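Figure S7 source data.
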Amino acid sequence: MKNKGIVFILSAPSGTGKTTACKLLRKKLPELKFSISHTTRSIREGEVEGVDYHFIPQKEFQEKIERGDFLEWAKVHSQYYGTTFETVDRHRQNGDDLLLELDVQGAQTLREANYEGTFIFLLPPSIKELEIRLQKRSTEPEEVIKARIEVSKNEVKKFNLYDYILTNSDLEETAEILLSIIRAERCRKSRYLPPSSDIRSLLNSKVNS
Ligand code: 5GP
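Tokens for the predicted guanosine-5'-monophosphate complex:
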């Protein structure tokens, strides 16, 4: 017998280093599955359709919303992002642990629906540091960076949605902590499946006081 897979929800303010931390985590834990979201944003250099995202036009995204295909969806920086039931259910049924990279709105949607998962929030060491990182990345103009910082501050205020909060000061350490969280969650009493009949019968028997 196998347990259903665990769903991990990971969020972070833009520029915190979530994508890079996940790349490291993937190397450390190759059996962990990563959910592939649908998005209306355009494909970036180096990204691959069906690997990083399913890139779809807005009309198709809208149709998916109307059909009820999405477990959750959100508008992030004027583009749409969503996770389909199909993606998540397929992995869970196989017993695979699955990581969803969601923005804070997506995490909030799942929390409010009492979705069963482990919610992890990755934060930068400081807002100042986040601003410096976004400026270094220099993919966006200054006013866009300012707007993103304001969004980030509001996201941080929603820390209570999460079960675990960690600071990304060092990528290697962050990936190690994520790995530890995943391993600890796998050992929860509620998920314990006795590997042998003798242990199983002990678990079902009364304690002699
Ligand atoms: P990016 O465009 O940089 O890949 O992602 C922008 C933001 O959208 C990130 O915070 C990312 O985690 C989030 N995101 C990616 N996929 C989904 C999704 O399916 N649902 C939600 N709510 N957010 C997502």
